[in-house]
Amino acid sequence: MRELLVSSVELLAYLLTTGLLASAGLFAELRTISYASAGNLKFSAWLGVVGLVALYAAFSVGTERLLPRLRELARQRSLRRFSAQ
After folding, report:
1. What does the alpha-carbon distance between residue 15 and residue 73 come to, in Å, rounded to a whole number?
2. How many domains in the chain?
3. Binning pLDDT at 50, 70 and 90, where does residue 66 land?
4. Three-class secondary structure of residue 81 per DSSP
5. pLDDT attached to residue 76
6. Hey, how many other C-beta atoms are within 10 angstroms of the C-beta on 21?
7. Residue 65 maps to a domain
8. Which domain range does residue 51 map to?
């Protein structure tokens, strides 16, 4: 039971981290467009880089940490379902 709780908390943490990083990156990229159209190009370029880094971090955490755990969870459920029949 304790392993299941730890695994669930870990999965939730990776899910929240990925979501927050992706949201921050998207927000930064949208603000980049606003600042660029207002003429503040230096800050716009800096914010664009920050947005790209946040989006890359979200992609990295999602593909290297979250996806393997979700696949393992799906595999375990399908094995339980198969062995129950």
Report:
1. 14
2. 1
3. very high
4. helix
5. 85
6. 20
7. yes
8. 21-84
Domain contains 7:
no
Residue 15 neighbours by CB under 8 Å, 6+ apart: 66
Mean pLDDT along residues 14-27: 98
The total number of residues shown for the chain amounts to: 85
Whether residue 13 is predicted with pLDDT greater than 90 in this model: the reply is: yes
Average pLDDT, the chain: 92
CA distance 25 to 50: 7
Residue located via tokens 């969870």:
73
Q: Which two tokens stand for residue 41?
A: 């190009």
Q: What token pair was written down for 59? A: 């992609």
Tell me whether residue 50 is exposed, middle or buried, using C-beta atoms within 10 angstroms of its C-beta: 0 to 12, 13 to 18, 19 or more: middle
Residue 4 lies in a domain: no
Helices 67-84 and 2-38 meet at what angle, rounded to 10?
140
Would the pLDDT of 3 be above 70? yes
pTM for this structure?
Answer: 0.84
